[in-house]
Automatic annotation (TrEMBL):
Pfam families: SASP. Keywords: DNA-binding. Coiled coil: none annotated. It comes from Paenibacillus terrae (strain HPL-003). This is Small acid-soluble spore protein alpha/beta type. GO terms for molecular function: double-stranded DNA binding. Belongs to the alpha/beta-type SASP family. GO terms for biological process: DNA topological change.
């Protein structure tokens, strides 16, 4: 984990990682509340996940109410996708 005073190399990446976190949570069927979509409908994330056939509930929760395993699976998937993206980028430039 980066220290609070550490400068980020690409500050714009924070927003994309935030979006990716909620995207993966929806794919996994986790009913996580996303304040970005609160103005649309309070249960928009759950509805999206239900459309994917992953989540049958109706209430959104905060990250702190999920289990460590659920939160860890989201973090692990983020890491997996970032590594795949980096490998793809490197192979396009002939580095790998």
């Amino acid at each position: 984990m980066a220290s609070r005073g550490q400068r980020r190399l690409i500050p714009e990446s924070r927003a994309r990682l935030h979006d990716l976190k909620y995207e993966i949570a929806a794919e996994f069927g986790l009913p996580v509340y996303n304040p970005q979509y609160a103005h649309i409908h309070p249960s928009a994330d759950s509805e999206f996940a239900a459309e994917l056939g992953e989540f049958k509930g109706s209430a959104n929760v905060e990250w702190r109410y999920l289990t460590s395993r659920q939160n860890g699976s989201v973090g692990g998937e983020i890491t997996k996708r970032l590594v795949q993206s980096a490998e793809r980028s490197l192979s396009e430039y002939g580095t790998l």
